[in-house]
Amino acid sequence: MMFNGVNDQTDGKVRCWTISSICPGTAMATANHTIDRRIARTRTSLHRALISLIIEKGYDSITVEEICQAANVGRSTFYLHYTGKDDLKQSGLDGLRRQLAETAAHAAKGEGSQRLGFSLAMFEHARDHVDVYRALAGSRGGAVALGTIRQILSDLVRAELATNVGKPLQDAIPRELVVQYVVGAYMAVLTWWLDGGTKLPPDRVDAMFRRLASEGVMAKDS
């Protein structure tokens, strides 16, 4: 008998031992992992294709066919993952939501329990995708995207305020007004920064926003 994990000749026959024959569960997990990686690669290719096309020609005129050609993906494969270009764009925004939520949660648990933990991450995301933000500006798709981003930020601020339940706001200011005030201020700072060419680094813009949000525009210079 020879058994080294590859061959077994006990009955005179040579058998090839594979991962699946020794441990079927492992093979299934490996196969699923391979499939998951293929799905991830396909979706990444589609997202990159959409971004490049947005920069090239704007969002509204893009077709699914153009996205598929740019990503080298068949239409049938595209529709296995997304219902259309709006769904593809929305999935990217959902990824942004998860990223900002994780960043905010980490900041809240860190030293000093930093408030508005999404702020810097959002500025960094805008800097890394500034061409996309500019290409979306003024388009129908851009209006939808910015509306979704505003909703994402509103949800994050609302969740942060919820952790302070029982702590009355000064002069009984409604919490939803605080949410809209903070998000409105953030979007104004973000727009101002993007329109100015993102010349200031994200951490400096973040610091300015935090000062405005915490001290207000009438705070005296230190």
From TrEMBL:
Transmembrane segments: none annotated. Keywords: DNA-binding. Residues 40-100 form the HTH tetR-type domain. PROSITE patterns: HTH_TETR_2. One of its GO terms (molecular function) is DNA binding. Signal peptide: none annotated. The keyword Membrane does not apply. It comes from the Bacteria. The keyword DNA-binding applies. Residues 63-82 bind DNA. InterPro entries: Homeodomain-like_sf, HTH-type_Tx_Regulator, HTH_TetR, TetR_C_Firmicutes. PANTHER family: ACREF/ENVCD OPERON REPRESSOR-RELATED, TETR-FAMILY TRANSCRIPTIONAL REGULATOR. This is HTH tetR-type domain-containing protein. It comes from Rhizobium leguminosarum.
